[in-house]
Amino acid sequence: MSWSHLASTLAFLVPHDKAELGKFYFFIIALCLSINIIWDICTSKTPRFHLDRLSEKVITVVAATTIASSLLVCMAVVDPKVYTLIGDFTLTLVLAGVAGLLVSIPEIDPVPGYQRAQWRRTSLRESIQSHGQPAQGEERG
């Protein structure tokens, strides 16, 4: 495989058109979600992974989308084609991009997300036991 072929295959990692932009988002989201699920399967800090728990990964998808957007904003600083692709852009967007990365990258770790989900289940269970029904704003689980 030549370097030029590899570069053209991975061109979507620095998107310059809308098709590459879609591939970029899909790749980053799939990568982060895969890391999270593999980490979740391999760690002893969460229960055994099962597809029933896949809905707990929504925050990971949101975080991955934020990571992708933040990377895109940071790339726009150094690549005029990316800048043109995402439109008008200021220093505020760069700061938001960096902040988004710092907030979102830790969400790849499945343990805190699992602990939040456990806390919600325990809280709901306690509410149902003490009142016979969920508190206002809570759902039955």
Q: What is the chain-wise order of helices and strands?
A: HHHHHH
Tally of contiguous helical segments? 6
Largest sheet: none
Number of domains: 1
What would the average pLDDT be, to the nearest integer?
77
Proportion of residues in extended strands: under 5%
> What is the structural class?
mainly alpha
Count of DSSP strands = 0
Helix content: 55-70%
What does this structure look like?
It is a single chain. The chain is mainly α. It has one domain. The chain is built from six helices and no strands. Helix 2 crosses helix 3. The model has no long low-confidence stretch (mean pLDDT 77).
Name some characteristics of this structure.
6 helices; 141 residues; single chain
Summarize the structure.
By secondary structure, this protein is an all-alpha fold. It has helices at 3-9, 18-42, 58-78, 80-86, 91-104, 110-131.
Give the SSE layout.
Elements: H1 3-9, H2 18-42, H3 58-78, H4 80-86, H5 91-104, H6 110-131
Helix pairs in contact: 2-3, 3-4, 3-5
